[in-house]
């Protein structure tokens, strides 16, 4: 017999309830939504609440409290009962140094708002400024989100989970030796490095509205990671200005990384149907061709309609459909789900709550439970009227004109399919046919890859950063 839903207390009344009563309400909510551990697979959730309290500055669009809102929705629906929940530990300096340079980490560790004037040259060199300010507790913040992604990757690699989630991660712009686009350390690169210890190939898929440039650059010269990014592209006015259709990896086909950077550059206003069709056709073909051992999905929520910085018209369920599609194509492959951008906090929270539900196979009722702290952030017509899935594609004053034509979209699909002819079978054949040569070939490729990284670190990074500085005001980016 279905349990009778408890009468929902008013928000203010709820605030004064004893803990036991709150827990009873959450239990009842979980029952009401039929939330239980998924059959046949495990989902782990990685989080450390200390990450919420950090502030980039009052007017900065990146608000770590969006993570608190997300967590409150996830917990309010009772989704924690369907997952293994881990309190993540901060990444150590040694762990961060697996990707980032010592001189960059030295700086991250020492600079603070009180001494930052003494470090002017370093701040410029390492990409600090309006987008990436020095703030109180910066080291704690970066090591917390980095540590959560590392823990999630390890949980997958030790088969303790099949899907692992870290909404505080996904900070795809950070470079080996520079902060960029609100990102200080690249937790995605660190997690993928961890996964490469166990899998020959890892696929990275990025649905943030911005190009996943930091991850692409980190694995530019290797065929062990294929990066696939869907993003708004305009080299003149939209950050980071990279990720065109012709940016496919190193130009020489003898370089292992050639054709393993896949980009789907989009224009303003793409809608649910267009995005879904494009995503399924391209991502499906890439999974088939590359045949990764593990998949990482960056779920930046700035690709939603109405986002403070984004340019698309997507609704929450269309964004989530990308997660559902990748999950459906994973089969036995471990899947790491990460956050990313997202600058309208209430909609970031709705989306990541919905996507947590998709991960565990739960369907949530569309009215937000009354027992959610800060429920007022979701109330009122302008804030989504207390619904989990308010319409975001047609918000007055925020709808972007759709600049996509069927022919243009077909060309994007064709472009990726053409590149996949080069990807097909490449590294997997070598692994099966030449197992003894494999590790030596890998070590050589790894060496070349590290050399190139160091080179890019100096040259390309300077070019990219100049470009970032030249484009318009901050409000237009990320
Ligand atoms: Zn973004």
Automatic annotation (TrEMBL):
Residues 60-357 form the Histone deacetylase domain. InterPro entries: HDAC_I/II (IPR003084), HDACs (IPR000286), His_deacetylse_dom (IPR023801), His_deacetylse_dom_sf (IPR037138), Ureohydrolase_dom_sf (IPR023696). Pfam families: Hist_deacetyl. Substrate binds at residues 131, 181, 343. Residues 469-478 have a biased composition (Basic and acidic residues). GO terms for molecular function: histone deacetylase activity, hydrolytic mechanism; metal ion binding. Residues 459-478 are annotated as: Disordered. It catalyses: N(6)-acetyl-L-lysyl-[histone] + H2O = L-lysyl-[histone] + acetate. The active site is at residue 173. It is an enzyme of class 3 (hydrolase). A divalent metal cation binds at residues 208, 210, 302. It is found in: Nucleus. Coiled coil: none annotated. Its EC number is 3.5.1.98. Keywords: Chromatin regulator, Hydrolase, Metal-binding, Nucleus, Transcription, Transcription regulation. GO terms for biological process: epigenetic regulation of gene expression. SUPFAM superfamilies: Arginase/deacetylase. Belongs to the histone deacetylase family. HD Type 1 subfamily. This is Histone deacetylase. The lineage of its organism: Eukaryota, Fungi, Dikarya, Ascomycota, Pezizomycotina.
């Amino acid at each position: 017999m279905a349990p009778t839903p408890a009468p929902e207390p008013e928000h203010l009344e709820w605030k004064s309830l004893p803990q036991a009563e709150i827990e009873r309400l959450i239990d009842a909510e979980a029952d009401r939504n039929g939330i239980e551990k998924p059959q046949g697979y495990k989902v782990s959730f990685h989080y450390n609440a200390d990450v919420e309290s950090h502030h980039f500055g009052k007017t900065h669009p990146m608000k770590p409290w969006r993570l608190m809102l997300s967590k409150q929705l996830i917990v309010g629906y009772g989704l924690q009962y369907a997952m293994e929940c881990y309190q993540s530990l901060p990444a150590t300096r040694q762990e961060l140094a697996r990707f980032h340079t010592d001189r960059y980490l030295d700086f991250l560790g020492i600079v603070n708002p009180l001494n930052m004037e003494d470090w002017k040259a370093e701040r410029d060199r390492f990409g600090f400024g309006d987008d990436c300010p020095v703030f109180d507790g910066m080291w704690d913040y970066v090591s917390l989100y980095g540590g959560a992604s590392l823990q999630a990757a390890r949980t997958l690699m030790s088969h303790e989970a099949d899907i692992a989630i870290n909404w505080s991660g996904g900070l795809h712009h950070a470079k080996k030796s520079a902060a960029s686009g609100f990102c200080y350390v690249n937790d995605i690169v660190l997690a993928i490095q961890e996964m490469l210890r166990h899998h020959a190939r890892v696929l990275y898929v990025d649905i943030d509205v911005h190009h996943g440039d930091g991850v692409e650059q980190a694995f530019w010269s290797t065929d062990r990671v294929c990066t696939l990014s869907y993003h708004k592209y305009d080299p003149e006015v939209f950050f980071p200005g990279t990720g065109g259709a012709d940016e496919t990896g190193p130009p020489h086909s003898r370089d292992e990384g050639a054709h393993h950077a896949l980009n789907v550059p989009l224009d303003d206003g793409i809608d649910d149907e267009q995005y879904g069709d494009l995503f399924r056709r391209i991502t499906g073909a890439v999974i088939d061709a590359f045949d990764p051992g593990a998949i990482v999905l960056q779920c930046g929520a700035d690709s939603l309609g109405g986002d403070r910085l984004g340019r698309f018209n997507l609704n929450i369920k269309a964004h989530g459909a990308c997660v559902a599609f990748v999950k459906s194509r994973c089969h036995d492959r471990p899947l790491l789900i990460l956050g990313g951008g997202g600058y309208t906090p209430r909609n970031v929270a709705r989306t990541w709550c919905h996507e947590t539900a998709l991960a565990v196979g739960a369907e949530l009722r569309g009215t937000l439970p009354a027992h959610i702290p800060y429920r007022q952030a979701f109330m009122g017509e302008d804030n989504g009227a207390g619904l989990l899935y308010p319409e975001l594609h047609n918000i007055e004053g925020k709808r972007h004109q759709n600049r996509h034509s069927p022919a243009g979209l077909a060309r994007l699909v064709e472009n990726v399919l053409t590149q996949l002819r080069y990807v097909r079978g490449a590294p997997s054949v070598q692994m099966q046919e030449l197992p003894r040569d494999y590790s030596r070939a890998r070590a050589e490729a790894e060496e070349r890859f590290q050399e190139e990284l160091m080179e890019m670190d100096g040259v390309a990074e300077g070019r990219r950063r100049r470009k970032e500085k030249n484009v318009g005001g901050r409000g237009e980016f990320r």
